[in-house]
Every structure is written in structure tokens, then in C-alpha cells.
Amino acid sequence: MIAILLVVVGILVIALLVLNVYPAFGAKPAGKGKYANQIPTPMGMDLKTTASLLRDFIKGNPRTKPTDVLPMGTLDASRLQGHQEAKVTWFGHSALLLELDGKTLLLDPMFGRAPSPFPRFGGKRYSESLPIEIEDLPAIDAVLFSHDHYDHLDYGSIKRLKDKVGRFYVPLGVGAHLQRWGVEADQITEHDWWQESEWDGIIVSCTPARHFSGRSLTDRNATLWCSWVIAGQETKVYFSGDSGYGPHFQEIGDKHGPFDMTFLECGQYDARWANIHMLPEETVQAHVDLRGKVMMPIHWAAFTLSLHDWNDPVERAWNEAKRLGVEMTTPHIGETIRIGSEDYPHSTWWR
């Protein structure tokens, strides 16, 4: 009995050491409070729901990953310098490269192989490569993060990016992770919901989302989660981060809309956790609430984090957008599109 207790204690001690020492878990935020959503957001993890999830994960779905290599464009680093035209390039999942008023910004640049503190054991990225390697990127004027989950804030990506980046914009508490990973405190600007910063003529506004945060067993909701409004001289875009559907989209649309383009979560959903990840039909409605002109679905085509078919999110959103008369653009990963164009890509390449 004593031997068993010693083994258990030993395992607990090792686990605590890993949580506190292993850098990928990030840092403990300075505040001691917990953040909350604007409206009640239950995640439905009762015994019945948990049992049904366990059953479905054991059963599996062979269509959660593509069987063919996904089409991918290639970025030329030499053309990413100082162009005034507003452009965006999608890297898969929620990672975007935004060119605006001569500035280059990265949004949730998760470029790692798996959304996990231990990438060798996490769910592998669908593609073997990226449109451009981190080392080949030019100087990045700013990086914006929506929250600290592994599929958005990646330790390995930050270590490789940080010396190229001028400024980081993050929700409250997330800066502690970056500082632990070697980013200087004076490069980081933290925001609460509805706070904004002006930076060389570009205004970044931190806006609500309906989600949660945390990177380990002990830091649930210890940092804030958010969406972002990014406004240049002539172009304004909205980036959702992760969010369930809620009245905040209408509120943001009323306060900051209309938007030339919305980048909206569309994937990794399930009816059992719809409060924190929108269903595709809700994604299209969120775009309408925001008063967006053109919608780009994100949070899909890179990782499997749910049980639906890998291309189900974009197919359902495509059909709903047609029903509601919403213009939805569907670029390939690595394909650069001009915001405000009269000829957005609309191919159904995922079929």
C-alpha cells in the first residue's frame, strides 16, 4: 500500500513539475481572477453528454481528414513589403497574413505541426508544408492573438517568429505567455474587450467573443479571449477568433460595422459544444449581424479537432450563404486575395 502511494505521489510531483517547467504550457497570468462570457455559456459536459462523446470518439469517423493532398499556393516573400493594397492570405485553420496600408500583420499564426504542447503526439496538420516557411517571412509589423489555446497560440511558432515582429496585440493575460517565451514586455499590448489602440494610422479594437481559455489543468479562463476589428484608412476587417454564436456579433456590427471582409470561425463544431464553437449556419448569420460585405470561413482545413467530416463546415456554410444571399469567398490555402476585389475566388475546391 505504501509503495502504491509513493508511486501516485511521484506521478503527481512529476506532473506538477512538467506543468510548471515545460515552456509550451506558457506562464501563469499575473491576475488571480477568472474571465467570463457576456452571457451564460454552459458546455454541456454532464455525464450523459460525456458518455456520448466518448462513444463517438471511439467509433470514429474516417472522413475527418482529407484523403487527397490539399491544393496550396506559394507565397513570395519579396512581394510582402510595403504594398498599400489590402490583401489577405490564409494559412489554414485560423492563421492569416493581412497586408493593410503598407503594414504586414499576422492573425493567430499557428504554424506548428500539431495543436498540442507535445506536437509529436498531437493531431497532425493535414499538409506537410506551409505556403511560406517562417524563416522566409519578411519583417512582421504586428501579430494579433485571439486567445491562448494551442491551435491559435503555438510556442514553437512564437520562438521562430518573435525576432521578426515589431508588436504583439493580445487579450488580457496572454502577454505572460509571450514574455516567458522571450518577447519583451514593451512589445506587447494587452486589451480588455472594447479597448482599442491606434498604431501608424491603423486602429485595432479588441471585441468580445463567446469562448474560454487555458493551456493546462489549472488555468481555465485565467486569460481573456476575444475577437478583433482592424481598421485601416480605407479597409476594415473583422477576425472572430473562436466563438459560439451570440448577441455580441450584432453589438460589434452596430458599433464597428460595416466590414469589407469578415474572417469567421467555421469548423471544429459539434451540437454538444455549440455554445463555444458556432455551427456553420450560425457563422453565416454572424456575418449578417456584423454587416459584412464578404465572408471568409476559417478554423478548418488544417487540423481535426471534432468529429464532423473535414469539409463539412465549408459545405454547410456555402449552402447557407447561397440561401441568404451572402457573398462567401473560398481561397485555397496560400492563395492571396485582394480585399475589395470585384473577382473573389468562389471555387468549391474541397469537393
UniProtKB/TrEMBL annotation:
Native organism: Tumebacillus lacus
SUPFAM superfamilies: Metallo-hydrolase/oxidoreductase (SSF56281)
Residue ranges constituting the Metallo-beta-lactamase domain according to the UniProt record: 105-300
InterPro entries from the UniProt entry: Metallo-B-lactamas, RibonucZ/Hydroxyglut_hydro
Top-level lineage group: Bacteria
Protein's name according to its UniProt entry: MBL fold metallo-hydrolase
One of the Pfam families matching this protein, by short name: Lactamase_B_2
Gene3D superfamilies: Ribonuclease Z/Hydroxyacylglutathione hydrolase-like
